[in-house]
Structures are given as C-alpha cells and as structure tokens.
Design goal:
The complex is a heterodimer of chains A (233) and B (160). Chain A has 233 residues and is an alpha+beta fold. Helix content of chain A is 17%, strand content 19%. Chain B has 160 residues and is α+β, with helices and mostly antiparallel strands. In chain B, strand 1 and strand 2 form a beta hairpin. Chain B is 35% helix and 16% strand. The chains are: A alpha+beta (233), B alpha+beta (160).
C-alpha cells in the first residue's frame, strides 16, 4: 500500500497573506479611504458622574465644514451590551464615567472637527462618584443605574443595584477542609482589569448610499463594531 | 493655516505635495500619498507601528512633521523590496512564521532593518530584543520575530 503524500499536516507552509503583510500591501479597516470621507470626533464626558443640565451643540453645527453633530436627541437610543443591556451609544441625561461619549461630530477635516469639539457647550450637575467596587456594593451606595431593574439582561445573572451579577462556586465540604487544614491563610484575591491592547485601531468605515449604510469593519462582529466603535475615534 | 509646497523623496520617487505645517509625515504618507503600509495607532511614538526609515534610520513618523523631511530620503515598507526581490528580513519573517495579524510588521521590519544596518553581523537574542524594543507586537509573537532577525543578522554577517 502506498503512503499518501500529506498535503498539509507535517509540512512547512507559508502564510497565504505573508507577502502582503511584509510588503505593506495588506489592507486593514483603518486603511480604507472612500471619496469624500469625513472625519469623526467624539465629545466625551470629563466628569465621572453627573446629570447633564444643559447641552448646546448649535455653535458647533454652525461651523463651515461641520456636516453633523449628533447627540442622544438625534438617534434612537437602543440600550445594548452583551450581558446587561445598559449602554446607549451617546449619553442620555446622565454621564457615568470620564470619557463617556456625549456627542459625535463629522466634519470635512480633523481641524474643523476639533474646532467643533471645542464649540460644544455643556453644564453638569455633579453626582457622587464611586471609584471602588466594594464601595459600589455597600448598603446605600449611589446607584450608577437607578433604573437597573428596567434593563434587559441575561436571565442567569444575579443582579442587584450596582451589582451586575454575582457568582459563587462551591464544591466539596469546605468547612471540613478548613477544620482539618494544618494552616489557614485568609486573603481577598483580585485580578486586574484586562483589555487586549492591540495596535490596530478599532475602526469601521461606512458609506451612506441611498438608505443603506455599508459597513466595513475590522472584526467579524462588524455590525457591533460599527454601532459601538465608530464613535470611539 | 496655510498650505506649503513640499517635495518629498519617498522610496526613490519624488512626490510634490501641498501640506499644512502641522501635518505629520504619517498623515501625509497615509492620507495624501496613499501609502497605507505605514500603520497608525498611538500617535505618541509609543508603539512603533508607524516606523519608517529617514536617511536609513528608524524614526516614528507619527511625531515627525512632514516639513522636517524636506531633502531627506524616506523609505517606507512599500519601498524596502527591490523590483524583483523581497528584502532578506521580509523573506525571513515569512519563513519563520513571524507574521500574525501583521499590523506591527511594517514597523517591526523597518526597525530591524535599521538595527542590522547599524549593527552588522551575528547578534544575540538579547541584543536583537533591545534593538527592536521600540516596536510592539500585540500578538506577542516576539520569539519568532527575534528568530527571523537573528537568521538575517547571521547571514548578512557572513557576507560582510
């Protein structure tokens, strides 16, 4: 019986896109350029927790070259997010963290978009801010989402106030194990917040032809990327 | 702002462009000339994906004004290979599987090119890691990148 020559397993195969990537020809989402493409900028909250008492974008809209300034009043404010649907694209009446998007600008150049950023007027009514998770879970803590019970969420979540979920895992006879242990070491363990810090920018390019927007995203979840991260330039 | 006429020598070709004085070389390469092989990310010279060669030396183009490049020789990743042959580093990166998502690769290869030009001959892994430290690979595929650079360093050292 003859041995079938292996076509893939056990052979050295160069990447199909290797040459494109070492010569700079590979095209990433942020490399797309379309005719007449506008530049986006996001106006963000600079306070950790506050009610928005006044937001005026009329001066920004009046700047020549500014094509659009959107606030939550201009879009349908669908709440989204994978587990608890508590996020809107732009802040409604309240900001909940420094950097939260409040308004989105599209303009014909970076310089004009940044002028428009500077022309947006906002007044805040500050609310108590919480910087520590234990503090957020304490009795009587300020609620980050006062309407948390109205949000749609995965049914498996054990939600309560500022806690978006609690999970406990238990197996075996814990008390017995501690009682028999030679030494008991007590500590609270925490992990860092993890975010994959890739160097490719999150990007999506959309072209508005007739009523259809055709997004080109960098991830296979390009519609999610489009809805959430187009606004993160 | 008022635009200024500028002649740039990029990959041995003369480009006559009109630039604003505050525009970076990165902006001009990507958005005026259309050479998007030079990547954009942090815009504060931390990540190295925008690295180009300026008169043969690795420079982060995101903090370099285009006007500073008048009369200088600029090489981007698109200009590293000759007409019929990839640069030895480009070959080695493919051969050693050093390319993953690829976003850092143009900057990484040019950083390595500059390092090997300035430090010819076989290099230790530690020396190469120090040499490419200015460019971050967030796939964290450094071992294969170092292997690729080491192979080229050894081969070029033998030739010299």
């Amino acid at each position: 019986m003859s041995v079938v020559e292996r076509r893939i397993v056990g052979r050295r195969l160069p990447r199909l896109d290797g040459v494109a990537k070492v010569t700079g020809k590979a095209v990433y989402a942020a490399d797309f350029a379309l005719p007449g493409m506008l530049v986006g900028r996001i106006f963000r909250s600079n306070v950790p927790h506050a009610l928005i008492s006044r937001l005026d974008v009329s001066r920004a809209r009046a700047i020549p070259g500014v094509r659009a300034v959107l606030t939550s009043a201009d879009i349908s404010n669908v709440r989204f997010s994978p587990a608890v649907k508590d996020v809107t694209v732009l802040a409604l009446d309240r900001v909940r963290f420094v950097g939260q998007p409040v308004a989105a600008i599209a303009a014909t150049s970076v310089e004009i978009a940044e002028q428009a950023l500077a022309a947006i007027e906002i007044d805040y009514e500050p609310l108590p801010a919480i910087f520590d998770p234990e503090e957020a879970l304490a009795e009587g803590a300020t609620l980050i989402h006062p309407q948390w019970q109205d949000y749609t969420a995965l049914p498996v979540l054990d939600r309560s106030g500022n806690a978006s979920s609690r999970a406990s895992m238990r197996t075996g006879d814990v008390e017995k194990a501690f009682a028999e242990a030679y030494r008991v070491y007590e500590h609270t363990f925490t992990t860092q917040i993890v975010h994959p810090g890739y160097t490719e920018p999150r990007a999506a390019v959309a072209t508005g032809i007739a009523t259809a927007a055709s997004p080109y995203g960098r991830t296979r979840r390009c519609h999610l990327s489009f809805s959430t991260h187009l606004l993160r330039f | 702002m008022s635009a200024v006429s500028l002649d740039l020598m990029i990959n041995d070709e003369l480009h006559s462009v009109s630039v604003e004085p505050h525009w970076t070389l990165l902006h001009v390469l990507r958005n005026v000339i259309g050479l998007t092989g030079t990547k954009e990310n942090c815009l504060e010279a931390e990540c190295g994906v925008c690295t180009i060669l300026l008169d043969g030396a690795a420079v982060t183009s995101c903090i370099l004004l285009a006007l500073q490049c008048r009369g200088r020789r600029i090489t981007t990743i698109e200009g590293l290979a000759s007409a019929d042959r990839l640069d030895a580093l480009q070959e080695a990166f493919i051969e050693h599987g050093a390319v993953q998502c690829g976003y850092c690769i143009p900057g990484m290869i040019l950083t390595a090119r500059s390092y090997l030009n300035e430090n010819p001959g076989p290099r230790t892994s530690e020396e190469i890691r120090e040499g490419i430290a200015g460019t971050l690979c967030r796939c964290t595929g450094y071992q294969k990148i170092v292997d690729a650079v080491a192979a080229v360093a050894a081969a070029e050292g033998d030739v010299r």
